[in-house]
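Target chain:
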Amino acid sequence: MLEDFVPETDWGQVQVRLGDEFVPMFYGSCIERTPDFVEAFRITRASNQPALADMDLAIAVQSHVLRSMPEVAQHPVADVNCGHIEVPPEEFWSRCCKALLSADMELADWRARTSGRLDVKLGSFKAPLGRDAFGDACLQGQALPFIGLMFRDHWLPSA
């Protein structure tokens, strides 16, 4: 089931532990209570260091993007009705693009701790092509089963 929500109200407010600090993470997906999901993952995978490192990288990517645009949380929240769809302004996408392009360098330490199993080379992933298969893959978290995309010598986050 999909959820209607306004991201600005939660921008940077939902946090989870990463290393020695609490950092912001995205909220709003088919996973309810994402910080609880992360902690449950860490508990059940406590003996699997590669899995924990991969989770830390996913959180570090989200924190990097959220912290690069803190002013989004200050935008006034419009009174929206059910089914309202809005495209963020070009300035948002430009800033987001800069954050994603800088992630390779900014998150190098977090990336070095991972197994690299969740990185994929450009053009090597075969996504579900049918509408039903794609929808199912999205809801099951399998549409993009990786954290990063390798293009030449550059790493771009997909999470």
The first strand starts at residue 15 and ends at 18. The helical segments are 7-10, 34-44, 49-68, 90-106, 108-112, 131-139. The chain has a mean pLDDT of 82.
